[in-house]
Write a structure and sequence with these properties.
Blueprint: H1 2-24, E1 30-44, E2 56-71, E3 75-85, E4 91-102, E5 109-117, H2 121-128, H3 137-140, E6 147-157, E7 162-169, E8 184-194, E9 204-214, E10 222-232, E11 236-247, E12 250-262, E13 268-278, E14 288-300, E15 303-314, H4 320-325, E16 327-336
Antiparallel strand pairs: 1-2, 1-16, 2-3, 3-4, 4-5, 5-6, 6-7, 7-8, 8-9, 9-10, 10-11, 11-12, 12-13, 13-14, 14-15, 15-16
């Protein structure tokens, strides 16, 4: 009898000690490693070498390796490397993200410091969901970078009915160095005006605005303004945006429209995008229009295939070099791990 009582008391004591230890260390560090790779086969639709064959090649356009950390007290970290081909076609590695975040009391605000996402590009890439095809218009044409060195805050309210991001940053992008003493500020606010069956931060009928003000290295103005209307369900994505740019005394604009339709109960989707760039609104006949159309197939949850054409026209006429490479057929894949 005494032995049974002693055993019960020991078991109770061990349980109490274990509970006390868990209360003192409520969340053990969680480290996860993963990545995403974009590969492609490119076929130039016009002979680009003056010979009998059109240029074509296989390549890995991007390979990201992500290391994510979660710690007690609302602390999180992310380190991402970016491997991509350089001008010579050789692979080079750069640091894409390296930041620490703090979400006090699991609340609505997350404060970030380091090499982090800029406020707009990550949001539109999530909406469009086909970064595997290529960068969105403001990134492809060099007006914004998807990552930069700075400090800021992300916020979301009412089940993502409103989400926002603000950043104070260098402005030269993650591959452009730290620049000089000049800095940029940028902020985005996205408001869901009507619900759909997609309740994510990009889902529903939304109005989104972005403003970025700053000075480039040397002191020239660098201002960006974007207005976007979008509609997204689990089956359909539609988006339209207007971008106004100012670099020193040059004012430019971009009009962009895109859509995705996923066939019901199928892994097949069709995509389309049109981007119209006017790099200098005071100069006539300098617009560039890019049209993208393709069909994708979700082979597995971590493997997506895309066959598409990427066609670029120049309002004022293309140079021979531009004419040789402006129209392309692509077979692309995205796999995550």
């Amino acid at each position: 009898m005494h032995a049974r009582l002693l055993a019960a008391l020991c078991a109770l004591s061990l349980t109490a000690l274990s509970a006390a230890a868990q209360s003192q260390n409520p969340q053990a560090p969680q480290i996860t490693v993963g990545g995403v790779v974009y590969g492609q086969y490119l076929y130039q639709l016009k002979d680009s070498g003056g010979g009998a064959a059109n240029q074509n090649d296989f390549s890995i356009q991007r390979a990201y390796l992500n290391v994510l950390g979660r710690f007690s007290g609302g602390i999180s970290t992310r380190v991402t490397t970016d491997i991509q081909p350089n001008a010579a076609g050789n692979q080079q590695i750069r640091l894409k993200y390296a930041f620490v975040g703090w979400t006090p009391n699991n609340g609505n605000l997350t404060y970030k410091f380091g090499l982090t996402q800029t406020p707009y590009i990550d949001w539109e890439e999530t909406l469009w969901d086909y970064r595997m095809q290529g960068p969105i218009a403001v990134d492809r044409n060099g007006y914004m970078s998807s990552s930069d060195f700075g400090a800021g805050v992300d916020g979301h309210w009412n089940s993502e009915a409103v989400n926002a991001q603000f950043l104070f940053f260098n402005g030269e992008g993650y591959s452009g160095g730290t620049g000089d003493n000049h800095k940029d500020v940028g902020g985005r606010v996205s408001v869901r005006v009507s619900k759909t069956n997609d309740m994510s931060r990009v889902g529903g009928l939304r109005l989104t605005g972005y403003a970025g003000l700053g000075k480039a290295t040397g002191g020239a103005d660098r201002n960006r303004y974007i207005g976007t209307a979008s509609y997204r369900t689990q089956q359909i994505t539609l988006g339209a945006e207007f971008v106004s740019t100012k670099d020193a005394a040059t004012t430019g604009s971009i009009l962009s429209g895109f859509g995705v339709y996923k066939f019901n109960k199928s892994k097949v989707a069709v995509i389309g995008r049109i981007d119209v760039l006017d790099p200098d609104t005071d100069t006539p006949d300098n617009k560039q229009t890019r049209g993208i159309a393709g069909v994708s197939y979700q082979a597995q949850s971590n493997l997506r295939l895309l066959a598409d054409v990427d066609l670029l026209s120049y309002e004022g006429g293309a140079t021979p070099a531009q004419d040789a490479t402006r129209n392309r057929a692509l077979f692309q894949l995205q796999f995550t791990f």
